Amino acid sequence: MSQHSRYRDWGLLLLCNFIWGGQFVIYKIVEREVGPVFAVVFPITIAMLLLIPIVYRERRRKNTNKVLSLRDLGQFLLIGVLGQVVAQFFTSWGVRSTLASNAALLGLALPILTALMAYLFLAERMTRLRWISFVLAALGVLECSGVRWGDLAFRDSKYLLGNSMIFLSVAGSAFYNVYSKRLLLRYSPLQVVLYSYYVFVGLMLPVAIYAEPQTFRNMLNLGVGIWLGLILLAVFVYFLAMVIFLSVLSRLDATQAALSNYLIPLFGVLTAAVVLHERLTKFMVIGGVLVLVSTLLVTVYEGREQSRTESKIRAAGKSIKITSI
After folding, report:
1. Helix spans in 95-156 (H)
2. pLDDT value for 224
3. Which of 86, 162, 236, 283 could be disulfide-bonded to 172 (CB atoms 3.0-4.6 Å)?
4. What pTM was computed for the model?
C-alpha cells in the first residue's frame, strides 16, 4: 500500500468517526418527538432502501449474480443479529438506564474488544506499537470526555441493567467490525452493509411497530428538525459512514481500523460544543491531539514500517537468488 493510500485511509477513518460522533447530538434532537427504537429502525430502513438499487447496479456492472451459500447466509445472520441488532438496540435503551459517565467509560472498550475478537477470529497479532497507540487513545478520550470517577456507579444495582446494555452494545459493534472482514473477502462493502441491514430491519421493524405504535401514527406531524435529523442519520450515519468504514476495513487489519473508533467520543464532544454550545476545555483539546496521534501511528506509521520490512525481505530474497546463480 502506498503512502498516499495510507493517508487517504486515515482521512476516511476521520470522516467516519466524525459522522458517528455527531450522531449523539442528532439523537438528542430526534428523541424529543420519537421513541428510541423508532429513532434507530427508521433511519436504518431508509439506508437499506437507498442501498438496494446501488447494490443491484453494482452486481449488474460486475456481471455477478452470486447466490448466497448456506455458510454465507449464516454469517450474515450472525453480523445482523450479534452485530447490528445488539449494537443499535442496546445503545438506544442502555443510555436511558445509566449515567453518562458510565457510558463514556464503557465506550472505551470498543477498540480493546475489537482487538481481542480480531485475535480470536482473524488471528491478528497485537504489536508493541498497537498497544502504545491503545494507551495513548484511552488517555486522550478520558482527558477530553471529562469522566468524573467519583460519579461512576458500576456496582449500583439501579445502573446494572443500563451498564450491561452499553457493554453488550460495544461488544456487538466489535463483533460486527471483525466478523464483517471475513465476508469482505467475498462480498463488496455495499453488499455486506445491505445484507446485514436486511437482518436488522426484518427483526427490529416489527418490534418498533409493536413497542412504539404512537410514533408511527404521528409521523406526518413530526417537525422539520426531526425529519432532518432522521434523514441525516439515514444518509450519513447508516449509509455513507458504514460503507466507507467497511471499504477501509477491507484494506486494513480490524485492529488498526477499530483504534480510530476512539475518535467517536472526541468528535461527539466537539459536535456538542458547536451545536449544543457546551463548553470546550483545553483538556478536551489535549485529549483530542492524543487520540489523533494514536490513530496516525497505526494507520500511517505502522503501515510505512511494514512496507519497509517487506521491501527488506524482498531485497534479501533477490540477493539470495543472485548469489545462488
Report:
1. 100-107, 109-122, 128-145
2. 93
3. 86
4. 0.71
